[in-house]
Amino acid sequence: MNQIHIFSPATVANVSCGFDVLGFCLDTIGDEMIIRKTPQKGICISKIEGYDLPFETENNVAGVSALALYNDANPDFGFEIEIYKKIKPGSGIGSSSASAAGSVFAMNELLGKPYNKTQLTNFAMKGEALASKCEHADNLAPALFGGFTLVKSLAPLQVLQLPTPKDLYAVVIHPQIEIKTSESRAILPQEIPLKNAITQWSNVGSFVHALHTEDYNLLSDSLNDVIAEPYRCQLIPYFDDVKQRALKHGALGSGISGSGPSIFSLCKGLDSAEKVKTAIQNVYSQTSIDFEIHLSKINTEGIKIL
Amino acid sequence: MNQIHIFSPATVANVSCGFDVLGFCLDTIGDEMIIRKTPQKGICISKIEGYDLPFETENNVAGVSALALYNDANPDFGFEIEIYKKIKPGSGIGSSSASAAGSVFAMNELLGKPYNKTQLTNFAMKGEALASKCEHADNLAPALFGGFTLVKSLAPLQVLQLPTPKDLYAVVIHPQIEIKTSESRAILPQEIPLKNAITQWSNVGSFVHALHTEDYNLLSDSLNDVIAEPYRCQLIPYFDDVKQRALKHGALGSGISGSGPSIFSLCKGLDSAEKVKTAIQNVYSQTSIDFEIHLSKINTEGIKIL
């Protein structure tokens, strides 16, 4: 195999209760990438469509993660990367992670799979760090592992694949405003009340238990964020309206996707998800803010070969 | 049935990563209680053996929790309680919880089980509050539900029963020193670094996942406390020695039981637990501090009828 065409999905990090550790993978929105072997050594980005991103390998997240794997594998040939970017950078649904994970996933396939998913996540973290100034894996893990993931630790990297209840759907609305991840980070306090932290870790524990037991009511009860949302919600116009509307129309929970501005809702069943989709798109329809909205089953596979 | 004789077990709260929310139940140490119906209405404590505790119903944790249930059930008879106290008050293995949970469990049996375990926990919290000045359920829940429990929330009370891996044993050493729960609470900061909180909730999530998947390595990796232990360990002489010795001899994890001074270790298999028991009792044997040590399978049943 000399060439591979992949779908690299968008992902939702944090998932309300799991700030910096939980994430899940979407199915209906993602980048496409074509990666092929080249006789000349090194990594070359030959095509970028969709959004205006740097072609220089070391300035492109897909390029930087590709280099990390390439330098480790040290093959006697090179790779050429074509990126068909569908996920808008800065959307809060793992745009940079899709690029960073996609290139290493594809190269690993072309090399005969010498690396496991945790190793791929490690390489991809180098690319992710270019975009967000720090290494993290809460979007990379669901893109590479699929389903729900918990990043247990970064050093050493330890990713847990959590079970995905079969009737779970996500609705993600992306208001077309810009929030910088750095701004979204800076707004959070460095110290938090112990009381709130206890609430958060009881929710993380019950969320994981709910995934294992397919307990949708408990899942719903666990989807609360007392840490980041109270600060970050002010950066997203109409956040409260969207959330209230989603819950009123049957969503199990609703919160900020990653550092925003996208807002995710989790729903039991397609019918419920469609109702929630209609309800929340009506919020932004009545404003001057453009938006995109995605309805997706949870993608339990992660990146897919097309 | 006019009389019931029960075993009300000791319990370990916090379990390193789950400050204020996690707990598990022991099998080889606990109080015994005899509760019988009486023609005269009200709650009367007729006998207390083992430790010197108040006989006045409203000053005794078993009495206060009994009254909470009694006032709700409002039967046309009363109850008499005999307490054979084996768990030393202030040991950090749920002495007051065993009393508070025992009386309501037994009364519920004698009344024909009108209440579920969550309701019993709610009544018992009134008794627990007498001992610890605040309502909490992290020892009550494992005593009443058995196995590992997660107190998801207190208002409304929501207790989750987590799975118990079948080869799990606990070793609990109780150095005979006194630490007041209030002192143990006061030593903790009210605000904690967000970074540490994230570590803690990733550990709670992975701990719950490890219980579901019977992954003993992950269980071991999750048994870390970056919140309470760094402060509370100084209240327990030789804590570090005991912990290091336990880990060196194969314990999956080791930490402070509740607010101390007892120290628990979790072990895979009886052989491992026996090695850990021998290793850690050697620590206190070489000091002037008296101690008790208990080795127990995890009690998945909770309170037992004898």
UniProtKB/TrEMBL annotation, chains A, B:
Gene giving rise to this polypeptide: thrB
EC number: 2.7.1.39
Broad class of where this protein is predominantly found: cytoplasm
Pathway assigned in UniProt: Amino-acid biosynthesis; L-threonine biosynthesis; L-threonine from L-aspartate: step 4/5
Domain GHMP kinase N-terminal: 67-147
Catalysed reaction equations from the record: L-homoserine + ATP = O-phospho-L-homoserine + ADP + H(+)
Keywords, alphabetical: Amino-acid biosynthesis, ATP-binding, Cytoplasm, Kinase, Nucleotide-binding, Threonine biosynthesis, Transferase
SUPFAM superfamilies, sorted: GHMP Kinase, C-terminal domain, Ribosomal protein S5 domain 2-like
Protein family membership: Belongs to the GHMP kinase family. Homoserine kinase subfamily.
MF terms in GO: homoserine kinase activity
Protein name: Homoserine kinase
